TrEMBL record:
The organism's place on the tree of life at top rank: Bacteria
Keywords (A to Z) from UniProt: Membrane, Transmembrane, Transmembrane helix
Transmembrane segments: 21-40, 46-65
Originating organism: Paenibacillus pini JCM 16418
Listed name of the protein: TerC-like integral membrane protein
Length: 76
């Protein structure tokens, strides 16, 4: 299953290169959550997953807008 998810993510990165940067941001967020948990700070799951989804969707939206602007400027 993990191999399938990884392959899907690689295909998405090919289509949306900005996802590579988003992946690093997500890894940092996960690391911060783990370190904070070691010091007794617990982030609610819905907040954490909301942030993950927000970063992922925000990156896709940014990539799409950027691509449309690029296509528009090259066709004009």
């Amino acid at each position: 299953m993990m191999r399938g998810v990884a392959q899907l993510f690689l295909k998405l990165i090919d289509k949306f290169p900005e996802l590579e940067k988003a992946a690093f941001i997500l890894i940092i967020l996960i690391g911060v959550k783990m370190i904070a948990g070691a010091f007794g700070f617990e982030m609610p799951q819905f907040v954490f997953f909301g942030l993950l989804i927000l970063i992922f969707v925000g990156t896709l939206v940014y990539s799409t807008i950027r691509r449309k602007k690029s296509d528009h400027s090259t066709s004009a």
